[in-house]
């Protein structure tokens, strides 16, 4: 058993009944899925979550609930901030905040002066899109149907403000790894006026994970900058800042890092700060730093101070092991269901193109109402909670998102339900 796993199991064991037996598992080789189905281990991890037990909750894409040690830390910090008041905020907040930045930067493989903490991915991405200052009149911006609605709205705003055009593309369904790179290459070749491209690493609509590094590199050869929406990827997939390769990225920490709600991160690669104008509300002293690209005002101090505990839990379970587990839980329902006539699984089998989230559509059921009805039937008849998603050009769908507290039985229950629904 490796050190990080031992620490986690000790922590989990201390919190639950003292008597359960822990099955030692092999160390987790980086990037391997050899522990993805080590159920003794994952049962221990699941015990660290206090969640509603009377439904099978497969809708964990909204945000990621905190594991117990993280929730306890957050409550402690709320009490501390409330107790110590401005004495804390004026005397020790700055140093403690900087220490959190150092830990986040280390975990992401970034420099401390490349990141700032935000209240979520939206705040980070709004700062990047609103601040991007290299567009000239007559140029264009590009985004796809699988991007997030708020970021699409921001790109429209950016284009209008800069007197630029908007090019909207529809991601092919189904997609392949090389097909996605070729798709974006052709889209940029056909539209040479595009100079800013929005890329969503993992789509919140279908779960498709695009080969972001390759697309960013290809775009760079055409002098196109990419802003990457990584709201759903860091913590669900295992990667560093360099693995994405983009100069401008918006991250979320309250989904897959399991931080308190209200935490995200903006990333601007060294040397690119001047290409994002400061937030109009940023004071003079913040103009030369990434933190001046968003201006948050007074923050939830306790949420920020809890980030080290969230990162610790994330690192103790292991980013590679988490990624493998999510894929495993997804595969258990998605691959058998793909074989059913009448079920369209909206992420490919290729493990590079999905993580844990995957949506499905019953053939011909393309309206929002159709998919609200499918999701309702899953809850009413099978006790399985999912959510419908809209905005995909080929039609609405139902999204399925397992968490670390889900078991293989939860995925298998969905596979069984879909068999019944399509019989
Ligand atoms: C792809 C994507 N981008 C951005 C966001 C917004 O994230 P936040 O709630 O942290 O602002 C979400 C939230 O679900 C998302 O799925």
What can you see in these coordinates?
The protein is α/β, with parallel strands linked by helices and 423 residues long. The protein folds into two domains: 162 residues, Alpha-Beta Complex (Aspartate Aminotransferase, domain 1); 239 residues, Aspartate Aminotransferase, domain 2, CATH 3.40.640.10. 42% of the residues lie in helices and 13% in strands. The strands form three sheets. Strands 2-8-7-6-5-3-4 form a seven-stranded mixed β-sheet, sandwiched between helices. A four-stranded antiparallel β-sheet has the order 9-10-13-12, covered by helices on one side. Strands 1-11 form a two-stranded parallel sheet. The protein is globular, with a radius of gyration of 22 Å. The N and C termini lie far apart (45 Å). 48% of the residues are buried. The chain binds pyridoxal-5'-phosphate.
